Amino acid sequence: MELVRYTAMCAAIAECHAVDEALDIHDKARALEVYAKQARNTEAEGKARDVRIRAERRTGELLADLARANGGDHRSVKAVGHDGALLEPSPYALALNANAIPRRTADRYQQLAAVPAEVFEAAMTADAPPSTRAIIDAVRDPVPQVTIAALWVWGRLRDFEQGYLDSSAQQLVDGMTPTMQADVRRVAPRLRTLLGAMLEALS
Fold first, then answer.
1. DSSP-assigned beta bridge partners for residue 86
2. How confident is the model at residue 85 (pLDDT cuts 50, 70, 90)?
3. Residue 81 DSSP label
4. Can you tell me the distance from the alpha carbon of 112 to that of 132, in angstroms, rounded to the nearest whole number?
5. What is the DSSP letter of 89?
6. Can you tell me the distance from the alpha carbon of 161 to that of 158, in angstroms, rounded to the nearest whole number?
7. N or C, which end of the chain has less CB nearby within 10 Å?
8. Contact 75/92 with Cβ under 8 angstroms?
9. 71, 20 Cβ separation under 8 angstroms
10. Residue 116 gets which letter from DSSP?
11. So what's the pLDDT on residue 145?
12. How far apart are CA 35 and CA 94, in angstroms?
């Protein structure tokens, strides 16, 4: 893709005020991207990919601005209310239907539009080729690595919740042998300290 054409398409994306306009640029960029890849023109492929992703982001911005019906998004133009009456299709539903945009695709474009501009631009100019999914994932909270110890403690807390937290402490102690009671005296203070520290860590 020539620099002049690339610049013009990027400018046109910014000027889009309707979903179909942004999607038209998206489709053209996608076609150029595929052609450049087949021709092994990596530079042109990269520019076309850049335009495509920017068009997806602009589409998401435009979709996010469209009104949903009755507080929902009513993706179907034949949505039915609780009373069985046919609901007036919302601008959002009409846009999805008119442009044949699947629900998951519309959601993905809007997630891309919600990515902060600085994060988006950093991803677009990074050494690694950008992708819509990678840009969206970059702003999501990382999934913590669950450890065996954490899983075990969580499980024991759930066990207490389901059967012992409402029990009588005196009855529990009375049901123990002297050795068991000695273990409680030894472990319970340390357990209280650990649980208190866990609550502080969660706050």
1. 80
2. low
3. -
4. 7
5. P
6. 5
7. C
8. yes
9. no
10. -
11. 77
12. 32
